[in-house]
Amino acid sequence: MAKQSYICGLDAAMSVIGGKWKSLILWELREGTRRFGRLRQALSGVSEKMLMQQLRELEADGIVHREVYSQVPPKVEYSLTELGVSLYESVLPLAMWGEERMDGIGAARASA
Description:
This protein is of the alpha+beta class. Helix content is 61%, strand content 12%. The protein has 5 helices and 3 strands. The N and C termini lie far apart (43 Å).
């Protein structure tokens, strides 16, 4: 596979967490390990198929660790890798910026 070229660091970072669900998965896993069902419950509106796809991509990028336990019923847990934690820490200021301006952003869009 050919190496991806990026315009800048932001382009590279957004290729990892771009889209609606990946950043929210990252946010949900910030507090620790979660089972699939709990992630799906926390991310209302995501389909099972989409959540699986996004988790697989995050795992392939080294952001998420998937732990499978051989038991009945099957148990699968997801957590952030060291790389995932560093990514979370890098987007935390962006999340704080959005939190501080959430009402204003909504109002600006409604009046546009």
